Amino acid sequence: MSTPKGRPPQKRAELLKALQTAARESTTATVLFHFAIGERFGFSGSDARALDILDRLGPLSAGEIAEKTGLATASVTSLIDRLEEKGRVRRVRDPKDRRRVIVQLGKHSEDLGEFYMAFGERMQALFQRYTDEEIDFIVGFLRVQAEKIREETQRLTQGKPAARPRGSRPAS
Q: The whole model's pTM is what?
């Protein structure tokens, strides 16, 4: 892969540091974005993430929401209660297993859908800058990054220490 015009190639260590910094900036911007959405629409950043997950994946059980968000089951129950009270979600019996309750988006979440749709259109315009090969690479990276973040979130919610690659030392 070539470097942008006018910029000399960087050493690998500098590139890795720049990549880590960019990933942290992206993650922080995403978290702040979801907190801003929550503030605008009257709920928390965690609530916004749960609504996004339901929008992308469809109806889920409370356990599945806990798994997808990395939140403890008790926290998810409170989250669902808050969102149900505001008409953002509703609990319904699973048509395939009447003993099971699933959570689906409520009719009062349409304003969020319109907001995300407008943002999605702006992102699609950005994506047009990239070749199919670059998009394939970015998608692969983002999927692996998301999986690593989910793994670490689960470790944190279970009270486990941070995972370190073999042979690494803690930062000083």
A: 0.69
49 pLDDT band, cuts 50/70/90, is confident
* DSSP per-residue codes, 77-130: HHHHHHHHHTTSEEEEEETTEEEEEEEEE-GGGHHHHHHHHHHHHHHHHHHTTS
Ramachandran class of 62: left when φ > 0, alpha when ψ lies in -120 to 50, beta otherwise: alpha
3-state secondary structure of 70: coil
Q: What's the number of CA atoms in the CB half-sphere (13 Å) around residue 148? A: 12
The SS3 call for residue 9 is coil
Residue 103, beta-bridge partner list: 60, 91
Residue 38 contacts residue 23 (beta carbons within 8 Å): no
Q: Which residue has the higher pLDDT, 149 or 102?
A: 102
Mean pLDDT (the chain) is: 85
For residue 63, the one-letter residue type is G
Q: Within 13 Å, how many C-alpha atoms sit on residue 155's CB side? A: 11
Which CATH architecture group holds 26-129? Orthogonal Bundle (1.10)
Average pLDDT over residues 7-17: 79
